[in-house]
Amino acid sequence: MSDSLSLRDRYFALIDEIVQTTLKGKIRSKQQVYQMLLRGIAAGTGEIFEQCLTDRVNATQSEIDNPTDELKQAKATRTLRALQTIEGEWQRYHQENLVASAIATATNAIVNTEADNRLIALLQAIDPNQAQALNLEQIQQLATSLQKQAQNSSDSETNAQLQELALGLTEGLKSWGKLQEHLVSWIYDQSRGKLGFEGVPGESGPWSLWASLLDNSFPKAVFQSLALNQSITEFVFQQSVEISAFVELAVILQCLQRGLVNWFDKLVYDAKFGAKLSISTFITFALIWSQLASGFSSRNTLSNGCFQVTLQILRTFAQQKYFPLYGGIFASFSGDYLRSAISYLDEPLRRVEGTQEKARILTLLGYSSGAIGQYDRAISFHEQALVISRSAEDRACEIANFNHISRIYVAQKNYSEAISYSQRALILSRQSGDRLGEANALANLGYSEVFQAQELDRLNTEVYEGAINYLQQGLDLLERLSDSYLAGYTIQQSKAFCCTSLGIAYIVLSQPEAAISYLETGYQAAGISGDLYLQGLNFAYLAEANYSLQAMEKAIYFGTIGMYLLERISSPQWRQAAGLLTIIKGQIGADAFQNVLQKNRSQFLRQIGVDGYDYIPQLLREYQDS
């Protein structure tokens, strides 16, 4: 206590000295005030100084507000101006010392940890989720600090490790400097239209361009593998990778990911497009690190480092306002890649305790698993997310998982459970004011009741009107939310879901004309959100609606696109569309069927490309052979 009082007295004296020197005109610049603070404040005692300064400011302000005479009030006013100068320089001092303290703390953590854990400590130090996140200049300062520590170390192993870590940071920043001006130039080149792992080998998104700009062999080779759609897991498994090269890659990828997300987030002229690309970026980079982790499975230090970075990315992603609680990971991946993505991203989540971020990522994986027919796994993800979200008091996430479980039970034809979960989502969403969750719950409730009534053969007017009313309420609520902060990607995702549900309900009720209107709106909204599952589902049911109206050409067109999109993400529902196409082909004849495909070839190419068009006969053969 006495030491604290002594320090307070000392700091009051320092403040008074600066004030008096200022009033006498002996201090002519803010820099002089800063230098006096620098000399007078002991390390780690900033909070005590700040409290002393606050006390002096409050006391002086009181003298001004309650003057005893004009002379004392005028002096107090001059004193307050001097104190305000001290406040400004104190903030500068505090900020600069925060950075210095963060770098010193990070350096000590890296130096003093066990040799096998130094890479993890470094990755934690440059984690953008840190309260005092380091910018690029500060990362270079960290590299310099590690270099100095290496020179001062008498232990040869420590010296070598710190040298490698410092070199990796420095080389990573140099490489980023070469890539920075080409961060988004690939977007304007139509031949590089994909961010993830799809596209023409050699021209997959920006990877080929970025690889050509790098000098160091390991990050360059990783980027070339990504450009060619080659397995980076298999590539790194065969490589002998130095720690410095690994750190360089970590810095490059972190800078690219953060730079892309920042740029996409600022696309105010097209917020829907920007959110879609930001989501794709987070998922793409998280998957890259998960695949690297698998490739380094025989080197625990590097594998653990990869998982560490994966979790950092997922944590940042889960905190974004556009995080898709009602969406999947289809924007970046499809087919085998989608299955791999779910498995790869599940692995690092097993290594972290329950957090709000973990619950949200599990929700994403659950929806994606359900879309590709992995219903038991999907429910497992959602049930884990429910437990964690309740503990974290994340009501929106809890409601989303009730809604997703409801939808999965519909797919499993367990309609009573589906209704139960949708009702729980509806009650909780109304209690907590989650309007987006309420809209989805209404859609789920109506959707479930339509299918239950169909199964029980109870499609009387009252049941029909009640179920459709719930669906329509959900869509109407989304329309009212369209001007809120959720507008854009998030609203479009849920709008696609509601419209799809309404369209399917009307098909079940044998009202194809009404179904078509909602399904057309549904696939447009799904296209904006990038949800390939809902896009494919809408096209598949548009085929059924048109088939009911004997509009065979349209049924073939929509069914073909739906079949292709659903198979592309390995959804078992592609077989439903393939079955309808096979029936139509049998009814109108193979030649007539082929003529329809040829007649609409240009439209098919716009929707699924030449590779998709050429794949149609093979898909139909696979269905028939099975």
Question: Helix proportion of residues, in percent?
Answer: over 70%
Based on secondary structure, the structural category is: mainly alpha
* Tally of separate helices: 27
Ranges where pLDDT stays below 50 over 5 or more residues in a row are: 196-203
Shape: globular
**Sheet with most strands:** none
The gyration radius over C-alpha positions equals 31 Å
Secondary-structure element series:
HHHHHHHHHHHHHHHHHHHHHHHHHHH
Amount of beta strand: under 5%
- Total beta strand runs: 0
Could you report the average pLDDT, rounded to the nearest whole number? 86
Describe this structure in words.
Helices cover 77% and strands 0% of the residues. The chain is built from 27 helices and no strands. It is globular, with a radius of gyration of 31 Å. The model is unreliable at 196-203 (pLDDT under 50).
Task: Summarize the topology.
Layout: H1 2-23, H2 30-40, H3 46-65, H4 70-112, H5 118-125, H6 136-152, H7 156-179, H8 207-213, H9 217-227, H10 232-237, H11 243-265, H12 271-295, H13 300-318, H14 335-349, H15 356-371, H16 375-391, H17 395-411, H18 415-432, H19 435-455, H20 461-481, H21 489-508, H22 512-529, H23 532-548, H24 552-568, H25 574-588, H26 590-599, H27 601-625
Helix pairs in contact: 1-3, 1-4, 2-4, 3-4, 4-5, 4-6, 5-13, 6-7, 7-11, 8-9, 11-12, 12-13, 12-14, 13-14, 13-15, 14-15, 15-16, 15-17, 16-17, 17-18, 17-19, 18-19, 19-20, 19-21, 20-21, 21-22, 21-23, 22-23, 23-24, 23-25, 24-25, 24-27, 25-26, 25-27
